[in-house]
Design goal:
The complex is a heterodimer of chains A (350) and B (517).
Chain A lengths: L1 H33 L3 H9 L6 H26 L7 H18 L5 H30 L3 H21 L33 H18 L1 H11 L1 H6 L6 H26 L10 H11 L7 H21 L5 H31 L1
Chain B lengths: L3 E10 L4 E11 L4 E5 L6 H8 L7 E6 L2 E3 L4 H6 L2 E4 L11 H6 L5 E2 L3 E2 L1 H14 L15 H14 L4 E5 L7 H16 L3 E6 L2 H7 L2 E6 L2 E7 L5 H9 L17 E10 L9 E9 L3 E6 L5 H9 L6 E6 L2 E2 L5 H7 L2 E3 L14 H5 L8 E2 L2 E2 L1 H14 L15 H14 L4 E5 L7 H16 L3 E5 L3 H7 L2 E6 L2 E7 L6 H8 L19
Parallel strand pairs in B: 3-10, 3-11, 6-9, 9-10, 15-22, 15-23, 18-21, 21-22
Antiparallel strand pairs in B: 1-2, 1-4, 4-5, 7-8, 11-12, 13-14, 13-16, 16-17, 19-20, 23-24
Helix pairs in contact in B: 4-5, 8-16, 13-14
The chains are: A mainly alpha (350), B alpha/beta (517).
């Protein structure tokens, strides 16, 4: 039994290590091809994030929204619902938070922040929950509906950011900045790292506890593993097509508002910059374990920041990180899909 | 020399430990209709899968026209002239008849493009030659069930099958369609084909076949010329002799009904025959009611309806006197339902989770303190169940790692822990070894003695005869026999009801449709 567990752990960690090694190898190869000073580029890509407080802090800061979205995806996947609309939910969260904060520029900080966070969470929960509801009611696949809904929401949000809410004083496509008192405290200057990292870590632990120890978490997990059994045992399975989606969407909305109040202070066009999609990769690397989402998010942020450092100190571009992430995303998803395929096959055989 | 000879065919399914075929011999003459009959689990489907290359035998030999052959897969079977028409059709609804027929052996132009014209022409030729009346250009989804079956047959004829295996071909057909199928079969025999007909319907055997092989428990028990046997003898051969269970069923006094089904029917729109057709019965306190029947005659649906997993189209269900027709499984459990399902690996247990999490599934609400599960008392509860039912497992073990018998013990432990006055057992000993089965029987009788109402749904006649006070027999979705279990009742009698040779039913009034809010 313990031996089997050890073997499982070994095979899963070697798989992950191999994935990361392949990604790194491709990054190195690209640098060797593209760069005139590959030694320098490689050094900054891998070591760069640790050389200066600025880089290191920014790396941690980038991990924050990824922790939120990664948790959101992990909760949904654990319950066998699929939220592919994270990008739109996070964007909607950021936009709603912006609207709320711009509407009350003189309110005390804490009230504004709470209002913005609640508003962002609710809009995310609503959007994803809607997909879940459609699934419960008419059996539409959340995988598709959440993605389609999100694609539409992104365009609508773009319209508001570049249209009615556009800040004419800025040359960028963005809304006006939110008032000073709503901005999160930066704790590691000169980097952009803010206090919300503590909140992110706490939420990861809270999510773990929720899934493992509360009866909602239990019912959600049981539904995720075997819906037929759950229905037989008297669990309201329809409910758990909606609730995990709503929680997942809520986390994404939250991620959007935190990026707004912690990093950008205004809603730029496309403020989410892939945190929704990367959340999926983060959750998959973490094997949907809420605690493991933290290191997985940090790793993703590390790739980003490494590419940034390499760009500033050598002649490569920031797209390098995107390629590295894409490789990891590809391999991890393939692995996850393979696992899913295998378990299906086993089920059919049984 | 026989056309097809199978000799000493043995097949063991290692995961479940079931010996599905045990030294089976089958000999089929050229140009005959040979029926293979037996109850569910007798091994006839396995034998055909082996012949069609879907499974591979552990031992034994297959000879075609005297030549030993190995059948690797269905394609190899096709090349040898063996074709199979499955019980559940394997057709693409969006494709036309011609496209379905040529699938996997399409005529092509320049080795690349599908030659539709040739396909339609060739398929049309096969259709015409054999007297079917289907347009090769219609889409399969617009065909009737009977026509879809014809497409399956045409598919095999297109591939030049000389030996056709038909697996329960009439189970989905209406009476007229069955007649049409028989006509087709006669037609095929005239064209020098050989047919193996797998069925458990005696009617078809006596009407259609030349010879019949009877299987029971993975073995061939008899081979007969059809003209030399009658249905009663076949029925006796199929069910076998009575085997006495080693259980003592003491007398109990029956109390008030704990479960009552009134005129329960399930019908599907567009399907002529109801799946359940006016099923009514009671289970009284202290009574063990057994429902017998061959699979596919409504047993599974009775289980689903009582478990709240499927809604009846009409009729009503009373549990402890309360109308529970429209309740969900969770609500039913609150009213007082415990239930051991037939599908224990998918429905009865969650294999990837721990024994602990399985044991609390139906009553985890009892282990809550402000929404948080109390791990300590859950552990203690699970340990108590493991001890009381001597389950060979630890509370943290993955259920998937337990043996079949221990999984069933765990399910039993969980269901009995709710101490309800009604409990449903569906196929509770299917695939279990003797010791585990014995354990299950003892538990059932103990419940009955304690004054609970027990309903046993089983296709195993020995356990029905050994345990039940009242025996109900289902055939084609109806209860065709109601018997007090006494000396005079034997397996033979039940077998005759089960196979549709006897029917005590009178016409029942039609119940109002179920209206759930």
């Amino acid at each position: 039994m313990d031996k089997r567990r050890l073997a499982n752990l070994l095979s899963s960690t070697t798989g992950l290590a191999l994935t990361i090694a392949i990604a790194f190898a491709i990054v190195v190869l690209l640098i060797l091809i593209l760069s005139d000073e590959p030694g320098r580029a490689i050094y900054y890509f891998f070591i760069g994030p640790f050389t200066k407080a600025f880089y290191f802090g920014n790396m941690l800061n980038q991990a924050i929204p990824l922790i939120f979205t990664g948790l959101g995806i992990a909760v949904a996947f654990r319950s066998s619902t699929f939220n592919l609309g994270g990008e739109g939910q996070a964007y909607a969260g950021a936009l709603v938070a912006t609207v709320i904060l711009l509407a009350m520029p003189t309110a005390p900080g804490i009230i504004g922040i709470v209002a913005a966070v609640v508003g962002a969470t609710l809009i995310g929960a609503f959007l994803a929950g809607l997909s879940g509801f459609f699934n419960m009611r008419w059996g539409t696949q959340t995988l598709i509906s959440s993605w389609l809904l999100s694609a539409a929401v992104i365009l609508i949000a773009d319209y508001f950011v570049t249209g009615p809410l556009d800040d004419p004083a800025s040359s960028m496509m963005t809304t006006a900045k939110i008032a000073e008192q709503f901005r999160f405290l930066r704790i590691y200057l000169p980097s952009k790292l803010d206090v919300s990292i503590v909140f992110a870590a706490a939420l990861a632990i809270g999510t773990y506890f929720f899934m493992q120890r509360t009866h909602w978490g239990y019912e959600m997990r049981m539904c995720g593993i075997n819906r037929e059994f759950s229905r037989y045992a008297g669990i309201h399975v329809g409910k758990y097509l909606v609730i995990p989606m709503a929680i997942s969407g809520g986390f994404h909305g939250l991620a959007g508002s935190v990026t707004l109040m912690g990093t950008h202070y205004r809603c730029l066009k496309g403020i989410t910059m892939g945190i929704g999609w990367n959340g999926i990769a983060v959750a998959l690397i973490a094997k949907n374990n809420p605690i493991a989402v933290i290191p997985a998010a940090l790793f993703f942020a590390y790739l980003n920041e490494g590419a940034r450092a390499a760009m500033l100190h050598s002649d490569v571009t920031v797209e390098l990180a995107k390629i590295g992430q894409a490789v990891i995303f590809f391999l991890v998803t393939a692995q996850a899909l393979y696992g899913l395929y295998n378990s299906r096959k086993k089920k059919v055989a049984a | 020399m026989a056309y097809l000879e199978m000799q000493g065919i043995t097949k063991l399914y290692p995961t479940s430990g079931v010996l599905a075929n045990d030294g089976v011999d089958l000999s089929v003459e050229e140009n005959e209709i040979h029926a293979v009959i037996g109850e569910n689990g007798a091994g006839k489907s396995t034998l055909m899968k082996l012949l069609y290359g879907l499974e591979h035998p552990d031992a034994g030999e297959v000879r075609l026209r005297g030549k030993p052959v190995t059948i690797k897969d269905p394609l190899a079977a096709n090349r040898l002239g063996i074709g199979m028409v499955h019980q559940h059709f394997k057709l693409v609804p969006d494709f036309t008849v011609a496209e379905n027929v040529v699938l996997a052996s399409e005529p092509t132009r320049r080795g690349m493009f599908i030659d539709r014209q040739t396909a339609i022409r060739d398929v049309g030729k096969v259709i015409e030659e054999h007297g079917f009346s289907i347009d090769p250009k219609t889409k399969v989804q617009s065909l009737t069930v009977g026509q879809m079956q014809q497409v399956e047959i045409i598919k095999m004829l297109y591939r030049n099958a000389e030996l056709l295996i038909l697996d329960e071909p009439t189970s989905v057909l209406t009476e007229q369609e069955i007649e049409r199928l028989f006509e087709t079969l006669r037609n095929l025999i005239e064209r020098c084909r050989t047919i193996i007909l797998i069925t458990h319907k005696l009617d078809e055997v006596t009407r259609m076949s030349d010879r019949v092989t009877v299987m029971r428990g993975g073995k061939v028990v008899a081979v007969r010329e059809t003209k030399d046997v009658d249905k009663r003898e076949l029925s006796r051969l199929m069910v076998g002799k009575d085997i006495l269970l080693e259980v003592v069923r003491g007398p109990t006094a029956f109390g008030d009904p704990v479960l009552e089904l009134r005129d329960i029917s399930i019908s599907i729109r567009g399907q002529e025959r109801s799946i359940l057709d006016g099923v009514s019965f009671q289970v009284r306190a202290g009574e063990l009611v057994g429902i017998a029947g061959v699979g596919g005659n409504g047993l599974a649906e009775v289980e689903d309806v009582i478990g709240g997993l499927r809604r009846a189209t009409s009729g009503s269900i009373l549990l402890h006197g309360e109308d529970v027709t429209c309740l969900s499984p969770g609500q039913l459990r609150d009213v007082g339902l415990a239930y051991v399902p037939a599908d224990r690996l998918r429905r009865g247990a969650s294999l990837p989770t721990s024994v602990r999490e399985n044991c609390i599934a139906t009553k985890h609400h009892d282990f809550l303190q402000t929404g948080v599960l109390k791990l300590k008392s859950i552990r203690a509860f699970t340990k108590r169940l493991i001890e009381r039912f001597s389950i060979d497992a630890a509370e943290g073990m993955r259920v998937g790692n337990l043996s079949g018998g221990n999984i069933q013990k765990m399910i039993l432990a969980r269901e009995l822990a709710s101490e309800t006055d009604f409990i449903l057992f569906s196929e509770p000993t299917w695939g279990l070894d003797v010791a585990s089965s014995q354990f299950v029987y003892e538990q059932m009788l103990e419940l009955r003695e304690r004054g609970a109402g027990v309903l046993l749904i089983s296709s195993n006649l020995d356990e029905i005869l050994g345990l039940a006070d009242t025996i109900l027999v289902m055939y084609r979705g109806r209860i065709v026999g109601r018997l007090e279990n006494a000396e005079a009742v034997s397996k033979e009698v039940i077998g005759e009801y089960m196979l549709g040779l006897r029917d005590d039913t009178r016409s029942e009034p039609i119940a109002a449709e179920v209206q759930c809010g």
